[in-house]
TrEMBL record:
Catalytically driven reaction(s): 4-fumarylacetoacetate + H2O = acetoacetate + fumarate + H(+)
Gene3D superfamilies found in the cross-reference section: Fumarylacetoacetase-like, C-terminal domain (3.90.850.10)
ATP-binding as UniProt keyword: no
PANTHER family the record matches: FUMARYLACETOACETASE
Species of provenance: Bagarius yarrelli (Goonch)
Binding site for Ca(2+): 49, 122, 124, 156
First-tier enzyme category under EC: hydrolase
Cofactor(s) this protein requires: Mg(2+); Ca(2+)
Residues engaged in binding Mg(2+): 156, 176, 180
GO molecular function annotation: fumarylacetoacetase activity; metal ion binding
Family (UniProt): Belongs to the FAH family.
Listed GO biological process terms: homogentisate catabolic process; L-phenylalanine catabolic process; L-tyrosine catabolic process
NCBIfam families (UniProt xref): fum_ac_acetase (TIGR01266)
Name under which the protein is recorded: Fumarylacetoacetase
Length: 307
């Protein structure tokens, strides 16, 4: 090491042998991301899915219950969610098998069993939380940030025809828990704080135990693309943002429950997903001359198993 006049040290100039050794060590220590095998970033013991987008909840409510009953009264006053299947959370790149279940496509006839014909995606993000709390001891809202480690992209795969038949009265089950894909690394909340935004004003005002004044939503650009079998490149079907959704985040909304086609280009259209379709979610925050990325969250649909 050389000592500079300012008192700081710097590495001495490398000779040829040192440079070669340096490159050798880098080659042994690093591999290209394209050939790396990704794993879940943590062992997931529990998973709760929140129905947190007002736009999405309103759109789905209109389709299933009509405009007058789009949002249930409780939606505006408390976090609405349900427990998902933690064992079905998979890392980006894991194939997703088309699920089978009960559906009732014709309301005048009994339900039928078979592969879902309305397989869909949902553009979401997920928080990794921990450490937990003792049983029966709540975490006050002003300390919630102490338990949130970071965020990942999440695709909440959804079988809409199965979901529509089974969700009354207790909510989603098999139509939602056959697979949930997340991106392979967690972006810590500290890395996102330069992109923090003030929360929107809620009406009606939440009860005191749900109120907090500190800004805690984030300027994260989000995208969804689909690449079907035979397509030379993926087509972007959604551009949105975590802080202020500017686009439909599901094919249910984009096709308005199958009544409109989604153009993918080259003559390809969709209402819902076909076997062989690969869906990729991407997201990033953008600063002055740099980005904080979330990697990719992708999965390819494979056919249902024959029964």
């Amino acid at each position: 090491m050389e000592k500079r006049l300012d008192g700081f040290y710097r590495p001495a100039a490398r000779g040829r042998a040192d440079t070669e050794r340096h490159h050798e060590l880098r080659a042994r220590a690093f591999v290209d991301q394209s050939i790396a095998l990704m794993h879940l970033p943590a062992e997931i013991g529990d998973y709760t899915d929140f129905y947190s987008s007002r736009d999405h909840a309103t759109n789905v409510g209109i389709m299933f219950r009509g405009k007058e009953n789009a949002l249930m009264p409780n939606w505006l006053r408390l976090p609405v969610g349900y427990h998902g299947r933690a064992s079905s959370v998979v890392v980006s790149g894991t194939p997703i098998r088309r699920p089978q279940g009960q559906m009732r496509p014709d309301a005048t006839k009994p339900p039928v069993f078979g592969p879902s014909k309305q397989l869909d995606i949902e553009l979401e993000m997920a928080f990794f939380v921990g450490p937990g709390n003792k049983l029966g001891e709540p975490i006050p809202i002003e300390k919630a940030h102490e338990h949130i480690f970071g965020m990942v992209l999440m695709n909440d795969w959804s079988a809409r025809d199965i979901q529509a038949w089974e969700y009354v009265p207790l909510g989603p089950f098999l139509g939602k828990n056959f697979g949930t894909t997340i991106s392979p690394w967690v972006v810590p909340m500290e890395a996102l704080m330069p992109f923090v935004e003030y929360n929107t004003v809620q009406d009606p005002e939440p009860l005191p135990y749900l109120q907090h004044q500190d800004p805690y939503t984030f300027n994260i650009n989000l995208f969804v693309s689909i690449k079907g079998d035979g397509m030379s490149e993926a087509a972007t079907i959604c551009r949105s943002n975590f802080k202020d959704p500017g686009s439909f985040g599901s094919m249910l909304e984009l096709s308005w429950r199958g009544s409109k086609v989604i153009e993918l280009g080259g003559g390809e259209t969709r209402t819902f997903l076909k076997d062989g379709d690969e869906v990729m979610l991407t997201g990033y925050c953008e600063g002055q001359g740099y980005r904080v990325g979330f990697g990719s969250c992708r999965g390819k649909i494979i056919p249902a198993l024959q029964q």
